[in-house]
TrEMBL record, chain A:
Pfam families: Fer4_11, Nitr_red_bet_C. It comes from Arthrobacter livingstonensis. Residues 7-35, 177-209, 210-239 form the 4Fe-4S ferredoxin-type domain. It is found in: Cell envelope. PANTHER family: NITRATE REDUCTASE BETA SUBUNIT, RESPIRATORY NITRATE REDUCTASE 1 BETA CHAIN. The lineage of its organism: Bacteria, Bacillati, Actinomycetota, Actinomycetes, Micrococcales. The keyword Iron-sulfur applies. Its cofactor is [4Fe-4S] cluster; [3Fe-4S] cluster. This is Nitrate reductase subunit beta.
TrEMBL record, chain B:
GO terms for molecular function: electron transfer activity; heme binding; metal ion binding; nitrate reductase activity. The chain crosses the membrane at residues 6-23, 44-69, 89-108, 128-148, 188-214. It is found in: Cell membrane. In the central section; belongs to the NarJ/NarW family. Does not seem to have nitrate reductase activity. PANTHER family: NITRATE REDUCTASE PRIVATE CHAPERONE, REDOX ENZYME MATURATION PROTEIN REMP FAMILY, RESPIRATORY NITRATE REDUCTASE 1 GAMMA CHAIN. Residues 226-248 are annotated as: Disordered. Residues 3-223 form the NarG-like domain. Keywords: Cell membrane, Electron transport, Heme, Iron, Membrane, Metal-binding, Nitrate assimilation, Oxidoreductase, Transmembrane, Transmembrane helix, Transport. It is a multi-pass membrane protein. This is Nitrate reductase-like protein NarX.
Length: 570, 248
C-alpha cells in the first residue's frame, strides 16, 4: 500500500442555479489572456445539452480516455505510444476552435467615435481570432437553460444513448421537467489519460496533493493531451503554443484557501478536502472489466483515514500529521465514502476522476410540486424516483456508467433526508423509520443534513496548508527576510531598491484577509487592513481611506499611516 | 573564397547551431514549441503536415546515405554505380517531391486561412523562405544530375568526401570546390537553414518526443521541482489590440 494524498472536490448539483459565477471568476483569475480567449477552465453546462466543447462526451468521435485491450489491460482509446507518435504531425481527432466557439469582443469604440450620421452607431462583434467582423453562432453555454433544445437537444450524446437503449421514441417531454446544471472543472484524475498521452511528459501529478499540472517549459505543443482527455479539459493556448488546464487554484490551495470557483460559488455547493488513496491500486481498479463496477473499484481505492493501518502507512509515506487530520475531517471523504452520496463523472472513461457530484433531486421535487403532490413526503418522492425512468437513466449515464440502481439509491437518500428533516422542523418527533428505509440511522442522517444544508465555510473547505518547510518553493510567497527590521523590511515600499523590488505579499492572502475584515467589521476598510495602500477592488466607497490620494507633504507622513509595507492590490 | 565558404562557414554554422540550441534550451524553454495552428484549421493540415514531415524524414535518411556512407562501402556490397543512382534518384525524387508538395500545401494554407496567417510571425516568414529554398535547390540538384550530363553523378566523389572531412577537422576544400554550382547553392542554403534553425519554430524538431516510447504513463512530480517563473509572455491581455504587439 502506497498512501498518497489527493485534493478533491464534491459539487452538490441540487444547489446549482446555473449563474456562471464560478466560470466568470475563474476566467478572470486564469484565462483572461490572449491565446486562451475561448478557454473556460470552469464551465457550467445545462443538461440535457451538448456541453462544451460540443458533444465532448462522444468518445467514439473524440477518442478520449482509456479502454481495455483484448488482454484486459488499459490502453489509451486514441491508440498506443507508437500510433500516437505517428499521429504527431497532424493530431487525428483534435477538437478545432469551431467545436468550442470563436471568441469575440465588441467594437465598443464606435459607440463613442462614430461621426454624426443618420444611423445610430452599433458595437459590432469582432472576432478575437481574426480581428475582423464576425457572426456569433455559438459559445461555451449557447444552449444554456435548454435554449434551442427543440432543434438541438437530440445532439446531446447522453440523450442519444438513452434513446437508443430505450428503443422507443421519447419526445423531449422531460426537458420541461428535467433540467439541471453541471459545473465542470478538470477532474484531477488518479489515472489521467491526458498525462499518458503527452509525448513530452510535461503533464504531471503533484506528489503532495495530486493536483494535475502542465509544465509550461516542457510542453512542446504536440496537442495529444487534448485528444487524451475525455472531459476535454485541456486547452491549447494558440498564442503561446502550449497546453493549459485548470490548476485547482494551487497557489490558493497551498496557503489553505479554497479555489476561486468554490470561494465565489453563490449556491455554496462546492466542497473541498483531502482523500487518502492507495496509489498502487489505481491501475488495477481502473482495469475492472465491467464499466458498472468502476464506481465501486474507485471507491475501494480511497482509504479510510481513521483506520490506524492507513494512518501508519500514510506517516510512512511522509504525509504530515496535520494532513492526516485534515483527511479525517475531509467533507469530500464524508460525502463520497461515508454517506455514499457523491458519484464520479463518467467513471467509464477509466481515468478515476476526483471531482465528484451529488446528483440532483430538485427536478423531481419541482415536478411533483407542480403536479400538486406533497413533494416532501418520502413515499411520494420514492414513487416518483422509480417512475421517472428517463431522468434516472440519464443521470446514470453521467455518473455511474449506466447503473440506475446506484443513482436511485442516492436520490432516495436525498429524498429521505428531506422528509426526515421536514418532520423535525415541524416540531414532530423524528421518524426514524425514514432513515431506516434507506439503511441509515437518525443521527447519521442528521449529520448528513448538517454537512449538506448548513455547511459552514470551514466545514465545506478543509484544506491543509502546504508545509512551511517547503514554503520557499511556493510560487506565491512572502520574502523570508521580511521580518521586522530584517533585510526585506516589508515586501515593498521601503525597500532600498525602490518600490517594485522584493517579493510581494501573496495577492490571494492579502485580498482574502481584507475581504474578511471588511465583511466582519463595521468601519471603513482602512490602513490597518490594507497596509497603508488602497486596494480599489476592496474599497467599499465610503469615505477616503488614507492612502487613496497622494500625501500633500510627502516628507512628513501622517502618524496614523504605518510604514508602507505589503503589496498593493490586484 | 573557397576556403571561407567550405572551410570556415561550416564550422561557423555548427557553432551557431549548437550554441543557439544550448542558449535557447537554457533561456527560452517557454518559447520552445511547435506553435501548432491545428486549432484554427485542420482539414488541409491533416494532408499537408504528414506529407511534409514524413517526406522530410525520408530526405534526411537519403542525405545520410549519400553523404556519410562512402562509395567504396556500397561498391564492396556489390551495388553497381548505376543501381545506386537509380535508387537514389527514384527514392530521392519521391521524398523530395513529397516534401515539396507538403510544404506548398502548408504555405497555401498559411496564407489563405485567415487566423493562421494572422498567427504567422516575421520570423516564420523568413524561416519559410529559407526552408523552401533549401528544398527547391535540393530538388534541382537531383533533377539536374539526371537531365544535364555535365552535372554528372559525381557528388559522391566531391560533396561527400568534403562532408566527411569536416568531422575530422581536415576540410577537403578542393573536392567541394570541384562540385557543380547547383550543389554549391544547395549546400549554402542548407547551412543558412541550420544557422537560423535554433532561432525559429523549427527547434521543435530537436525535442522530438522519442522518449515517449519508454516513459511510464503516469508522471508524479514533487512540488519542490514544480516551482516555475512568474510573468511570462503567456500572460498578456485579451483583445484585438494584441495583434499589433503579439510579435515578441
Amino acid at each position: 500500500m502506497r498512501v498518497m494524498a489527493q485534493m478533491g472536490m464534491v459539487m452538490n448539483l441540487d444547489k446549482c442555479i446555473g449563474c456562471h459565477t464560478c466560470s466568470v471568476t475563474c476566467k478572470q483569475a486564469w484565462t483572461n489572456r490572449a491565446g486562451v480567449e475561448y478557454v473556460w477552465f470552469n464551465n457550467v453546462e445545462t443538461r440535457p445539452g451538448q456541453g462544451y466543447p460540443r458533444r465532448y462526451e462522444d468518445q467514439e468521435k473524440w477518442k478520449g480516455g482509456w479502454e481495455l485491450n483484448k488482454r484486459g489491460r488499459l490502453k489509451l482509446k486514441a491508440g498506443g505510444r507508437v500510433k500516437k507518435l505517428f499521429g504527431l504531425f497532424a493530431s487525428p481527432v483534435q477538437p478545432e476552435l469551431k467545436d468550442y466557439y470563436e471568441p469575440w469582443t465588441y467594437d465598443y469604440k464606435t459607440l463613442v467615435d462614430a461621426p454624426l450620421g443618420d444611423d445610430f452607431p452599433v458595437a459590432r462583434p469582432k472576432s478575437l481570432i481574426t480581428g475582423k467582423d464576425t457572426k456569433i453562432t455559438w459559445s461555451a453555454n449557447w444552449d444554456d437553460d435548454l435554449g434551442g433544445t427543440e432543434q438541438l437537444g437530440h445532439l446531446d450524446p447522453i440523450v442519444e444513448k438513452v434513446r437508443r437503449e430505450s428503443e422507443d421514441k421519447i419526445k423531449f417531454e422531460f426537458e420541461q421537467t428535467f433540467m439541471f446544471y453541471l459545473p465542470r472543472i478538470c477532474e484531477h484524475c488518479l489515472n489521467p489519460s491526458c498525462m499518458a498521452s503527452c509525448p513530452s511528459g510535461a503533464i504531471y501529478k503533484r506528489v503532495e496533493d495530486g493536483i494535475v499540472l502542465v509544465d509550461q517549459d516542457q510542453c512542446r505543443g504536440w496537442r495529444q493531451c487534448m485528444t487524451g482527455c475525455p472531459y476535454k479539459k485541456i486547452y491549447f493556448n494558440h498564442k503561446t503554443g502550449k497546453a493549459e488546464k485548470c490548476t485547482f487554484c494551487y497557489p490558493r490551495i497551498e496557503v489553505g484557501l479554497p479555489t476561486v470557483c468554490s470561494e465565489t460559488c453563490v449556491g455554496r455547493l462546492r466542497y473541498l478536502g483531502l482523500f487518502l488513496y492507495d496509489a498502487d491500486a489505481v491501475t488495477a481498479a481502473a482495469s475492472v472489466t465491467d464499466p458498472k463496477d468502476l464506481y465501486q473499484s474507485q471507491m475501494d481505492v480511497l482509504l479510510d483515514p481513521n483506520d490506524p493501518a492507513v494512518m501508519a502507512a500514510a506517516r510512512e509515506q511522509g504525509i504530515a500529521e496535520d494532513w492526516i487530520e485534515a483527511a479525517q475531517k475531509s467533507p469530500v471523504y464524508a460525502l463520497t465514502k461515508v454517506y455514499k452520496l457523491a458519484l464520479p463523472l463518467h467513471p467509464e472513461y477509466r481515468t478515476m476522476p476526483m471531482v465528484w457530484y451529488i446528483p440532483p433531486l430538485s427536478p423531481v421535487v419541482d415536478l411533483l410540486r407542480d403536479q400538486g403532490h406533497d413533494a416532501e413526503n418520502q413515499d411520494v418522492l420514492f414513487g416518483a424516483i422509480d417512475a421517472l425512468r428517463i431522468p434516472v437513466e440519464y443521470l446514470a449515464e453521467l455518473f455511474t456508467a449506466g447503473d440506475t440502481e446506484l443513482v436511485t439509491e442516492v436520490l432516495r437518500k436525498l429524498a429521505a433526508m428531506r422528509a426526515y428533516m421536514r418532520g423535525i422542523s415541524l416540531g414532530n418527533d423524528p421518524d426514524d423509520s425514514i432513515p431506516a428505509s434507506v439503511g441509515m440511522d437518525g443521527a447519521t442522517m442528521y449529520e448528513m443534513y448538517r454537512l449538506m444544508a448548513i455547511a459552514k465555510y470551514d466545514e465545506r473547505y478543509v484544506i491543509p496548508k502546504a508545509h512551511a518547510e517547503q514554503a520557499h518553493d511556493l510560487e506565491e510567497m512572502g520574502c523570508s527576510l521580511d521580518f521586522d527590521g530584517g533585510p526585506g523590511m516589508g515586501a515593498m515600499g521601503n525597500s532600498p531598491f525602490g518600490e517594485a523590488s522584493g517579493r510581494p505579499t501573496p495577492v490571494a492572502v492579502e485580498t482574502f484577509n481584507a475581504l474578511k475584515d471588511r465583511q466582519t467589521s463595521d468601519s471603513v476598510a482602512g490602513a490597518d487592513t490594507l497596509s497603508g495602500r488602497v486596494n480599489l477592488l476592496n474599497w467599499d466607497g465610503n469615505g477616503a481611506p488614507p492612502g487613496l490620494f497622494p500625501q500633500h507633504h510627502p516628507t512628513e507622513p501622517p502618524a496614523d499611516v504605518p510604514a508602507l509595507e505589503g503589496g498593493g492590490g490586484a | 573564397m573557397d576556403i571561407i565558404l567550405w572551410g570556415v562557414l561550416p564550422y561557423v554554422m555548427i557553432v551557431v547551431l549548437v550554441g543557439g540550441l544550448i542558449w535557447r534550451y537554457r533561456y527560452d524553454q517557454f518559447g520552445w514549441t511547435t506553435r501548432s495552428s491545428q486549432l484554427y484549421e485542420s482539414r488541409l493540415l491533416r494532408i499537408g503536415s504528414p506529407v511534409f514531415h514524413f517526406g522530410l524524414l525520408a530526405v534526411i535518411a537519403g542525405h545520410f546515405f549519400g553523404l556519410v556512407i562512402p562509395k567504396s562501402w556500397t561498391e564492396a556490397l556489390g551495388m553497381s554505380e548505376s543501381l545506386y543512382h537509380f535508387n537514389a534518384l527514384f527514392v530521392g525524387s519521391v521524398a523530395g517531391l513529397g516534401t515539396l508538395s507538403g510544404i506548398i500545401i502548408l504555405i497555401y494554407r498559411r496564407r489563405k486561412t485567415g487566423p493562421v496567417f494572422m498567427a504567422t510571425t516575421n520570423n516564420d516568414k523568413l524561416m519559410y523562405v529559407v526552408l523552401l529554398a533549401a528544398i527547391l535547390f535540393g530538388l534541382w540538384t537531383t533533377l539536374a544530375s539526371v537531365f544535364f550530363d555535365e552535372h554528372g553523378l559525381t557528388y559522391r566523389d566531391t560533396v561527400s568526401p568534403w562532408f566527411r572531412s569536416l568531422f575530422i577537422f581536415q576540410p577537403d576544400v578542393a573536392s567541394m570546390a570541384a562540385a557543380p554550382t547547383s550543389f554549391h547553392i544547395h549546400t549554402l542554403v542548407g547551412m543558412l537553414l541550420f544557422i537560423v534553425w535554433p532561432f525559429t519554430r523549427l527547434v521543435h524538431a530537436f525535442t522530438a518526443p522519442l522518449h515517449y516510447l519508454f516513459r511510464p504513463y503516469i508522471v508524479y512530480r514533487s512540488r519542490d521541482k514544480g516551482a516555475s517563473v512568474p510573468n511570462r509572455s503567456g500572460w498578456s491581455d485579451v483583445g484585438t489590440r494584441d495583434r499589433d504587439t503579439r510579435q515578441r
